[in-house]
Amino acid sequence: KDPPGAPVQVCQAKTGARVLMQMDRADCRSWGSSLWTATLSNLEPSSSYWLQLLGINDVGEGQPCLLQVHTSQRPQAPTNLQQTHRTLCEVSLRWKVNDPIEAPVRECRVMLGEVERARVSRSLWCDANTYWTTSLSGFFANDSFQLDVAAVNDVGTGPAASVTVATCARPSAIKNLQQFETTPLRLQLSWMIDDMPEAPVQRCIIRNPGGEDMTVHRPWGHTQNQNRHWSTLIDKPIQLSRITIFAANIAGEGPPTMFCLQTLELPCAPQELQQTLCQATAVKLSWKVPDPPGAAVHTCIVRLAEQTLAVVCRNDSLSWISGIWNAEIKGLQPAQVRTLTVSACNPVGEGPSSVIHVHTSNRPHAPAELQQTARELASVQLSWTLKDPVGAEVRMCTVLHGDQAVATAMRSSDSWASGSSWSITVGDLQADSEYKLAVLAVNEVGAGPPSEILVTTVPRPSAPVEVMQQKMGCCDARLAWRVVDPEAAPVMQCRVYSATGMLTEVTRSAAYHWLSGLWIATVADLLPECGNELAITAINSAGESNRQSIQTWTLCKPRAPSRLHQAGRTLKSVTLRWIVEDPTGAPVQHCIVSCQDRECAKVTRRWWHDQNSFWSVTLPDLQCDTQYDFTVHAVNETGAGKSCSIIASSVSRPQAPSALEQTHDDLSQDSSRLMWKVQDTTGSPIQYCLVRIAGRQIQVGYSIDCEYQECIIERPLEVADYSISAVNALGEGPSSTIRAWTCFRPNKPVNVVQTSRTSSSASFRWQIMDGCPLHKQVERCRIWHGDDVLTEVCCADALAADGLWSTTLSDLAPSQKLPIRVSAVNSVEEGPLSSFLTLLTSTPANAPTVKQVDRSATSITICVAVSDPQGAPVQRCIISFPDREPFVVERGCWQQVTLDDLQPARETPVSVYPVNDAGAGDAVLLLARTSNRPEAPCVSQVSRSPTSVTIEWTVEDPQGAPVQMCYVAVGAKRGRPQTVTRPVASGKWKTTIKNLSHSETLTVNVQAENDVGVGPKSYLQVCTSTHPEAPSVEQCSRSANSISLNWFCPDPLGAKIQRCKVFLEDDVCQIIQRAQGIQDGIPGVWTCAIAGLESSKTYCIGVVAINAVGESEWSERIAYTSVAPNAVWLEQFARSAKTITLEWTVDDPAGAPVEECVVSLSPGVAKTIPRPSAGGPWRAKFSDLKPASAYWANVVARNCVGVSPEKWLHVYTSLCPVAPTIEQ
């Protein structure tokens, strides 16, 4: 308003300190009013500003007024966006758009991902309540996708609204499929099918695996609707056939539904088929056959192969109580097994048969447990067991001896057979005999197999045992023996035989001792002083036993004395000792010593003499130094035994010395040492020894403690004969002679060894120890080969200062072995020869050691090692191999020799032998090999994509020929192989094969090539990426109006899953992109939440995974939203006179926990109890009630879905006391 007297001239619009616009009164003020109008420009769209408006007059600026202003906005997201129509490849949409103020929507854009599919312009009559519509084409049938719609005005493009649309879909699966009516030759099927929007079901197809397909067209008059009933008649009899039925519309065929048709069936094979009776020519069978529904079994047929044995009717053979069929089959052969088949027939036809093996009655089995139970002199008793064959019992049993029947046991006789145990007595037999009997059983079928047994009658006694001689005499002996009595026939007498006949016979009463069980008898008239061969037999009622022999002895004279020897001597006596063995039963009484048939002494037995004691005697009054021939014999009660002789002597002169020798340890010109042995066995000790030489006599004392006696003779002759004898108390004994001499010839050369050798000479040395006296020094040495002197060497030429002699033999042959000996010669004579030394000349070299150290495609490199023989080093080596001239390698050049111009991948035999001054050595053969072609590579697939695969391989480089390139070929018709050159940095080869098809499996072969050639192929089967597997879906959570799903679907190699489609009751409800669907970044685990659902409902959720290759198979899951609580579990917790406390529990439904409970107590008292904290029990307490009263309590639980069913409980307050019970 204008102040009085100072109208407003200018108005300003400010934002902060900035003046946006200054308006003059003449331009902006309306005439006749106080209203100012102005337009502000150059503002930002979709923005909000706070303006300060103030007026200015002549006085100044007035107070500002704050005003919030807005520029025009971009459109909001369209609302009510939905699909209104669909065809096979076209969809129609509609939506509403709210126009921003002063910026109406000009057009709308429809986007499919990043692609604009349509642009819809605003119609002239369009307002805020008018739907925008459009139709889009060019889609695939039975597909769903997400479209985005955004509105556009002059400000810009607003946010988009999304909708999931679908083209006409294939029909869903058949449901409620059932068999409505069944007759023997016709059946009726009924089912329901939902028409898909804009694509009603046109026909249904019934596919029978065993026959032709059947098409059922849409009934006339069917309008498009849900749950339409379809039905059809099938006039073909199908027996328990599994059919597949599916619906088809313009989009294609829906998923199949499997159904098992049940028509009138043939009977099944008879069950529990068994043989119930067995006879010789007939059998009886029983079985069960369940009746198929509507087609009872009327007959059964029994067949043998193709022959019908019996046809039994239901009325005659079926037991109505047990349901068992029975049939008797006659006219069979006995003792046979037949295979019968039984089948059942009903109005549909004959069913499958069951097989049974039946048997008629058999002949009896062989008797079992056949044994001999008793025996007599002329009879035996037998027993056995026998089981009757089924349907044909045993009538009799026959006992055979050979082919002749000796006894028969009949079944009718109770004395012979009882049940399965039989017995019989067989007579008219001979005693002490063995018979082979056979027993066989006979029934109406025939005779069974026999059982055999060996039986014996009462036997003769066995030969006596434990026969021994208890006592002996001069002409008699007492014997003892034992006899085993046979059963039922004891031994009554025994006989003793000699070589000339029976000596004696003893009876049981006279000779048997019952305490010891021995028979004892004395046998006379035996030969004296010798052994007698006797035989003993036993006799019973069956006869006489075999003879048992025994060697008996009578008393004899002593044997000749043993170990007779001279135990001592003197000048006039000798002492003898001996041992005498006492004969059994007649010990030696005395011994007689005789000399030249004259008894010298009688030696009586001492009381303490035993078997091993020595007898001794001393014979006096003999002559000295005299020998006597004595005999000794023993005498016992039988007489004098044989004698034993010995030559004994009294004390004599010493024997001649023995083992004479001259020792050479200290031989010289001035002395000579002699040594000898003297045995002092004369009975008189040796006093001294006498040594005589050339008229001289030397007395040498005798040393009894030394084995050898010795004598040193000073200044003896050069060679002389010495006579040596021993002297004792009787005089000088005989002498022994030895020739001795002093030493003048050289010693034997020693330490003869070879010092060096060549191919034609040998050097050696030797030593002469302890040389001769100074005037007899060694002047030269001779070298001997056998009996020939090879050479002589003088002392001046061969003797060195260290005392060693040496020389060299030349003009020898290579590899020669020359045995030599050396002797020393002085001025007197030649000394003894040395031991043998074998001189060796140098030999050719041994075979060298050759190995291959390197190779290439056309060459090999070898290394030669050779050892030099002593005295003849190797000068060169000769190398030769096939088809080439040998070449020479000089010394020092054979450590590495290369052979060129060879064939690749070949073995070449190389021969090498060394040569030295002694000749050519042994050759060695080496099989050298040039480089080979490469081996087959080791190939593996390392990655894949929908149109390519990457393979990797390793190949080992052959020695000397590394791999240069590899060839990769795909399949048999994929063009030329791909060439891959050798990698630089890594030892692994890699290549990628492109332009393949997805889900394709093909065979790749890889070959390696080097300088030698191309190696063998290595094959590998590779695969490109495939579509995903069917997801594994599970419900992870729920609420009243939503469900949350998780599913696992691993990414195929090389083609990760890009998105997943989620279907709700066969309609696409969400398309989950990979970025928003992967749960917590875990590969393969997707998550999705579906909202806007109804509570307490069951939904069929389908999930399909999609990658660059295609879609996975459909995976379904039944999901549930949360439900209302179940009824509570209610009980009265406590009471008093005026209060009641209730307690109850209630289970929380998944996703919708109980929030509160309403408790009412009739009449008209109610409480709402909130959820207790920390999982405590639900309780409610009612007060101010009447004592001793009953009430009905009611509790319902409530959650976000609804309320539970009511739970009622009859409760009470406390009662009055009951009347007391009084007792006296």
Characterization of the model:
With 1224 residues, the protein is mostly beta strands. It is built from five helices and 93 strands. Strands 14, 15, 17, 18 and 19 form a five-stranded antiparallel β-sheet that branches. A hairpin with a 4-residue loop joins β10 (144-152) and β11 (157-166). It is extended, with a radius of gyration of 69 Å. It starts with 9 loop residues before the first strand and ends in a 12-residue tail after the last strand. The model is unreliable at 414-418 and 771-775 (pLDDT under 50).
Q: What can be said about the biggest beta sheet? A: 5 strands, antiparallel
| Mean pLDDT score | 85
Count of DSSP-assigned helices? 5
Uncertain residue segments? 414-418, 771-775
The total strand number stands at 93
Q: Categorize the overall geometry.
A: extended
Taking the alpha carbons of the first and last residues, their distance comes to 115 Å
Strand content: over 45%
- Look at the helices and sheets and give the structural class: mainly beta
From the alpha carbons, calculate the radius of gyration and give it in angstroms. Answer: 69 Å
Please give the share of residues in helix. under 10%
